[in-house]
Amino acid sequence: MRVLLLEDDIDLGQAVDDHLEAAGHSVYWCKLVSQVRNVTFDLALVDLNLPDGDGVDLVRYWRQAGRLTPVIMLTARDQVSDRIRGLQAGADDYLVKPFDLDEMLARIDAVLRRSSPSPRLQVHDNVVDLEQRQVLHQGQPLDLTAMEWAVLRCLASRPGRIFNRGEIDVALAADGQPSSDSNTLEVIVSRLRKKLGADVISTHRGMGYRLDV
Q1: Would you say the C-alpha torsion 116, 176, 149, 90 has a positive or negative sign?
Q2: What whole-number distance in Å separates Cα of residue 102 and Cα of residue 108?
Q3: CA–CA separation, 117 vs 163, rounded Å?
Q4: Strands 43-47, 49-50: parallel, antiparallel or unpaired by DSSP?
Q5: Domains in the chain: how many in total?
């Protein structure tokens, strides 16, 4: 797997690079935001503060552009507000420095598992079939509108991950659906809850929505 490491601390960067290489990963190590343009990767480890930019702004840019590659933020700040800012921007997880390198590998594995769901996903009393574009509730097919399906498929692409409205709009556009304002999205989520179950989709104020499996 190709890992982008965006970290300007030489000692930490070298330790992470060596540990990832030893685990069989290919590492592209950058020390500046400007160095990551046109880089292809399967997962990114991104420092919060960099000499020429903010890692959170970079992650937000990726998400707004429709890039859903898994991202783990690296930060020296053990502040809840910083972790929330990274997650709101679209990061999948975070590590607070100093961190154990084996824990880093475990978190990478966990993020990758969440980002590659089975084509058939069991969600409470429902089965979401991403390939067949079908949802079964207690064994019976559910009738979903095109926008309901597009929102559900977006959330089901990463169960347990919070998607903000911008990311959901990107998914709607990719499915040929118009973008939604906050009220429209709330209505769609409300209808999905009525069809799938009230506790299937959770709301995280100021952040977005999550499919709870």
Answers
A1: positive
A2: 10
A3: 16
A4: unpaired
A5: 2
| Residue at a domain's end among 115, 150, 179 | 115
Question: 202 and 190 in contact (C-beta within 8 Å)?
Answer: no
Burial 101-122 (b: 16+ CB within 10 A, else e): beebeebbeebeebbebeeebe
- The pLDDT tens digits along the chain (213 residues) read 899 999 999 999 999 999 999 999 999 999 999 998 778 888 999 999 899 999 999 999 998 887 888 999 998 776 778 888 888 888 999 999 999 999 999 999 888 877 765 678 888 989 998 888 899 998 899 999 999 999 999 898 888 888 888 888 888 887 788 877 778 899 999 999 999 999 999 999 888 999 997
Residues 105 and 191 in one domain: no
Domain boundary among 100, 115, 130: 115
- In sequence order, the β-bridge partners of residue 173 are none
Q: What angle do CA 30, 67, 160 make, to 5 degrees?
A: 105
- pTM here is 0.62
**Structure tokens that stand for 203 in this block:** 């709301």
Report the alpha-carbon distance of residue 196 to residue 188 in Å, rounded: 12
CA atoms within 13 A on the CB side of 49: 7
Q: What is the amino acid identity at position 14?
A: Q
